[in-house]
Structure prediction request, 163 residues.
Amino acid sequence: METSYKVPDKTRIGHVHLKVADLQRSLNFYCGLLGFELITTYGDQAAFISAGGYHHHIGLNTWQSKGAPPAPKRSAGLFHTAILYPTRKDLAEILQRLIDAEYPISGASDHGVSEAIYLDDPDENGVELYRDRPESEWPRTDDGKIEMFTKSLDLEDLISELK
Prediction:
């Protein structure tokens, strides 16, 4: 295998497809709470949802998981799906929606390069809601390498973006 190959710079991860136990419950979370748009369904077994009219950012299906319990936390698999918000104010708005809905948040971190809110969807799939800082603000080492960290995110300061 050639070791010098690198994925092209403009490559992006286009969508995630999740196995869920209850399609409507997942739609209530992703569309009703987080605000994604329902694009299409395949009967009562699958749905494709989007931000901004894209064909789909998230696929949800019950093909192998209808009525199933959540995957064990201590097993191989998806750690979380990360949803990138365009601005800090947008991240503050979704945080306020979560607070207003009394939806449990499992964490909130400042990573230097980004600010993130962590929660679980109804099937206990991890979800990260985050915004990237401008690259000019990323912390760097003396030799110019990105220096990420994990510190507590000041949620009151984030919410102040809404004032």
